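EI: anyone free to look at a 378-residue chain?
SC: sure, send it
EI:
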Amino acid sequence: MSGLAGSAGGQRQPALDLIKIALTLTGGVGGVIVLVVAYRKQRLGEAAERREVAASRREEIKLFTERFMKAAEQLGNATATVRLAGVYAMADLADESIERRQTCINVLCGHLRMHCSSEPPVDPVDLAQWRGERQVRHTIFRVIADHLREDAPTSWQGHDFDFTGALIDGADFHEIRVTGGNITFQEAVFPRGKVDFDGAIFSGGVIDFSNASVSGGTVNFGCVKFAGSVVHFFETEVHDGGLDFSYTRLSAGALNLDDMILSSGRIDFHNATFIGARVTFSCTKFDGAHMSFREAKFRAGSLALGDCQFSSGSSVEFGQAEFAGGYVGIHRASYSGGVLNFADPTSWDTPPEIDLTSKGALAAVRMPGFVAERPVPA
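SC: here you go
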């Protein structure tokens, strides 16, 4: 009997093992089925989410396009008050959409580039329209400047601003921050008024005034910090107007005033501090114009006037300047009148390099009393 019992027990054990294997397989299959179902649900959920996001984006683009077109239509309206509403509507769109901000800025700048007269018309109706358009242009400049200041709720720093050929008869850019991007004033006209950059900081990007015309107006860079930007005034013409760099601090970057034509105009670097930037006046023509570096401090960086022409009535003043480092050089100048005055410096520790071999140089250049009247070695 015991043998039979043992035999039966031996037969039951493999059966139990088979049952366990079957259950394990069944459980595994069931687990796979559960995983497949969960995966399908996840894929379906992700697909639904993508469709929802795509639909939301299409709706967002549609809404933006509708608002953009409405704002653009307002900017093109014949009534100045409607155009003003368009300015603020376009600015709001720029604030709300980072990826489309540059497009909105381009439209605002495009309006500034539209042709308009610098002189007020005589006809009363035309005069009212002229004044209205002038208010719109000044509002656009104010909106842009507000977005470039440090305390702007929404910053537009780093974007491009194209004012090519614009009529700029006054604009307030005081204390703006330029950290990148391009600001273009090429061929812009400054007929009157003051364009004020007082206290601004240029630490990146390119600011380009090439081929601009300053004819009666003033572009003020007083107390500006040049700390890395490149600023061009290539072939800029100044007639009876001026560029004011008084109390500026030039620590890095470049200021290029090459091939300029100054006719009865003025450039003022009074009390400016040169501590690293590169400033050049290559081939600049001074015709009855005046430039002052009075009380300027040259401690590092460079100021180079190469191949410049100084005609009758022109003057460059370095009175009480501090030559304590860096490079100041005047080479291959052409003198047909005018005066370059280096007399009475505060410091002469690092004298400027002045080529006095050019015809008329000895008569035109006023050196400090303690320096012999002879060419200073280059």
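EI: The chain has five helices and 26 strands.
SC: 👍
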